[in-house]
Write a structure and sequence with these properties.
globular
Length: 142
């Protein structure tokens, strides 16, 4: 990179997402790997500019491979003031140096109004398994 072409980057916390899941079904032996499907039972989210709950809708579709898992998650977010947002994220879960790592990136679909700014956000984050599902910290570039 030549001097003067640097792209300064700062990140900020967008939201903390806690998702409750339940196993629906496992399908083993597919050409891409073993699939595991989880239903979204609910949850919560909170951040500096939005907060609310996750209704019991959506799913978490995993593909398990010899080196880890690939995630494909789609769920709804209902904000504290009644807006419904679609949140989709994909990523991977694996073990590195003996530690579980979950890394994801996602996008939103929001209606016109106070949350329309989310339509231009590419978010990224890390997750950790918890007894009832997964907790993620999602960030964005500012």
């Amino acid at each position: 990179m030549t001097q003067g072409n640097e792209i300064p980057a700062a990140i900020e916390l967008l939201l903390v997402l806690t998702v409750r899941t339940t196993l629906v079904r496992a399908v083993t032996g597919t050409p891409l790997g073993d699939r595991t499907v989880f239903d979204i039972e609910g949850g919560t989210f909170a951040g500096p500019r939005l907060s609310g709950h996750i209704p019991a809708t959506g799913g978490d579709w995993l593909i398990r491979t010899p080196t880890g898992s690939r995630l494909d998650v789609r769920l709804l977010l209902e904000t504290h003031d009644g807006a419904t947002l679609l949140f989709q994220y994909t990523g991977r879960a694996c073990v590195i140096d003996g530690k579980q790592r979950i890394e994801v990136a996602g996008t939103f679909e929001a209606p016109q109004g106070p949350y329309a700014w989310l339509n231009d956000v590419q978010t990224f984050g890390r997750g950790v398994r918890i007894p009832e599902g997964v907790r993620y910290d999602f960030y964005r570039f500012t």
